[in-house]
Amino acid sequence: MAVRTPDPDPSGDDPFGAPEGAASNPAWLSDIELTEARRRLPMLYVEGVPVRVDGMGQVTEVGILLRATPMGEMVRTIVSGRVRYGETVRDALFRHLENDLGPMAFPLLPPQPVPFTVAEYFPIPGVSAFHDDRQHAVSLAFVVPVTGPCEPRQDALEVTWLTPEEAASDSLSAEMEGGRGTLVRLALASVGALR
Amino acid sequence: MAVRTPDPDPSGDDPFGAPEGAASNPAWLSDIELTEARRRLPMLYVEGVPVRVDGMGQVTEVGILLRATPMGEMVRTIVSGRVRYGETVRDALFRHLENDLGPMAFPLLPPQPVPFTVAEYFPIPGVSAFHDDRQHAVSLAFVVPVTGPCEPRQDALEVTWLTPEEAASDSLSAEMEGGRGTLVRLALASVGALR
Amino acid sequence: MAVRTPDPDPSGDDPFGAPEGAASNPAWLSDIELTEARRRLPMLYVEGVPVRVDGMGQVTEVGILLRATPMGEMVRTIVSGRVRYGETVRDALFRHLENDLGPMAFPLLPPQPVPFTVAEYFPIPGVSAFHDDRQHAVSLAFVVPVTGPCEPRQDALEVTWLTPEEAASDSLSAEMEGGRGTLVRLALASVGALR
Amino acid sequence: MAVRTPDPDPSGDDPFGAPEGAASNPAWLSDIELTEARRRLPMLYVEGVPVRVDGMGQVTEVGILLRATPMGEMVRTIVSGRVRYGETVRDALFRHLENDLGPMAFPLLPPQPVPFTVAEYFPIPGVSAFHDDRQHAVSLAFVVPVTGPCEPRQDALEVTWLTPEEAASDSLSAEMEGGRGTLVRLALASVGALR
Question: Is B104 on the interface with C (CB under 8 A)?
Answer without folding.
Answer: no
